[in-house]
Amino acid sequence: MLACSELKKDAINTDESMIVADFDSDDWNGWSVQGDAFGQSLHSIENMPEALKEQGLKDGFANSNDIGPAAIGKLISPKFTIQKKYLNFLISGNGHYNAEDCNLRLMMGDSIVRYAAGTRAPHIEWESFDLADLIGQKAHIEIADESDKLYLMVDHIFQSDEMQLGPFRKSLIAEQQYLLFPVSKGGKQYRLRLEKEGDVTEQFVIKMAEGEPDFWAFKDVSQHRGKQLTVKGNSPVKPEGFDKIYQSNTVPGEDLFYKEANRPQFHFTSKQGWINDPNGLVYHEGEWHLMYQHNPYGIIGSEKHWGHAISTDLVHWEERPSSVVPDD
């Protein structure tokens, strides 16, 4: 993960007084250590695999995989006053999105008010907590690994009035129906944000293809025609496939939708992506509405959308754009 000096070199605006921890000193610098998950000293990138170094990891960081994932423990920061809108930090790990036993926690007294799990090892990304409603209050941070299977790595925790994202982005004027993203079934996961003229419309995780994609995920942006759309990422390193994102009025491979050899023909399935947990049905003015968990950008559950399909006879279905999408 990028060390403090490296972050400043990369032109990230960081008020020195707002740094909670960069883990680059010779000791824990006031943080208390519980258990044995984090070892007795700061972790150095020199002892880590090349795959992590390639993702931007440098110098010191907190690592609960010091002696293996079975170890448990906590790092607890000194108390500090919340003075800025966001708490930004770099995080990685092998956890789950809602991992309650292995995460970075913002604490007020004994209460957890925000938490984030590290979910995309060996990939590393920026994560942020919105603290606007907590400014002026005292808090502390716990980096907690209470799981015998999961681990996480954390670096460069700082307050700022700006949410920290990766250095790469793509802006365009929506002129065609679809925005297309290259997907690899075995690729690394990246979190992307889609914004319309500065406002977040959707946040999602995608296994972005580094070479030839297995398929193209599509987002219907026809309702934004004529508006500026921007795609941003949370990673400090730009994925190879990011430059391949493009607009089109067609989707590569759409002529094969519902003609695939293993495609169910009786039960409803979405055109593309992971689907689970159908809900409803809701009947309204002659139409049945089906809702379901959906990831239109891949074949894993990830950050879920609520898909939407309608039917007049419960046999023939028309897929509609997702009714609810993940945002900030």
> H/E order of the elements?
HEEEHEEEEEEEEEEEEEEEEEEEE
C-alpha end-to-end distance: 23 Å
Number of helical segments?
Answer: 2
In the predicted model, the low-confidence regions spanning at least 5 consecutive residues are: 1-11
Structural class: mainly beta
Largest sheet: 6 strands, antiparallel
Number of strands: 23
Q: How big is the Rg?
A: 22 Å
Mean pLDDT: 87
The percent range for helix content is: under 10%
Shape: elongated
Percent range for β-strand residues: 35-45%
Detailed description of the structure:
This protein is 3% helix and 43% strand. The chain has helices at residues 4-9, 50-54, and strands at residues 19-21, 32-35, 43-44, 60-63, 73-76, 80-81, 86-93, 102-108, 111-116, 125-130, 138-145, 152-160, 169-173, 178-183, 189-196, 199-207, 215-220, 228-233, 246-248, 274-284, 287-295, 305-311, 318-324. Strands 1, 3, 4, 7, 10 and 12 form a six-stranded antiparallel β-sheet that branches. Strands 2, 5, 6, 8, 9 and 11 form a six-stranded antiparallel β-sheet that branches. Strands 13-18-15-16 form a four-stranded antiparallel β-sheet, with no helix packed on it. It is elongated.
Short description:
This protein is 3% helix and 43% strand.
Layout of helices and strands, plus pairs?
Layout: H1 4-9, E1 19-21, E2 32-35, E3 43-44, H2 50-54, E4 60-63, E5 73-76, E6 80-81, E7 86-93, E8 102-108, E9 111-116, E10 125-130, E11 138-145, E12 152-160, E13 169-173, E14 178-183, E15 189-196, E16 199-207, E17 215-220, E18 228-233, E19 246-248, E20 274-284, E21 287-295, E22 305-311, E23 318-324
Antiparallel strand pairs: 1-12, 2-5, 3-4, 4-12, 5-11, 6-11, 7-10, 7-12, 8-9, 8-11, 13-18, 14-17, 14-19, 15-16, 15-18, 20-21, 21-22, 22-23
